[in-house]
Amino acid sequence: MGELTDKIKGNANEAAGKLKQQSNDPATREEGAAQEGKGKAQQFAGKVKGALGDDI
Fold first, then answer.
1. Is the four-CA dihedral 49, 54, 55, 56 of positive or negative sign?
2. Radius of gyration of the chain from its Cα atoms, rounded to whole angstroms
3. Where is this region: Disordered (predicted)?
């Protein structure tokens, strides 16, 4: 995956996670928190790829 792809997927996962955290179901809130964390990690990976190049 390229830099842009990672950033887009990261933004999507972060947004979906934030929405799930608004749920009344505790399990869904936990899933949302995990998904938001995954999104932040994907965005970070995109930033690293941008800094070092897509060859990593």
1. positive
2. 13
3. 1-56
Check residue 28 and give left, alpha or beta (phi > 0: left; psi -120 to 50: alpha): alpha
Q: What is the pLDDT of residues 3-55, one digit of tens each?
A: 899 999 999 999 999 999 999 999 999 999 999 999 999 999 999 988 887 55
Q: Any alpha helices (H) in the chain, and if so which ranges?
A: 3-20, 26-52
Instruction: Confirm if 43 and 14 have CB atoms less than 8 A apart.
Output: yes
Alpha carbons within 13 angstroms on the beta-carbon side of residue 56 total: 10
What ranges do the domains of the chain cover? 3-52
Q: Model confidence at 56, in pLDDT bands (50, 70, 90)? A: low
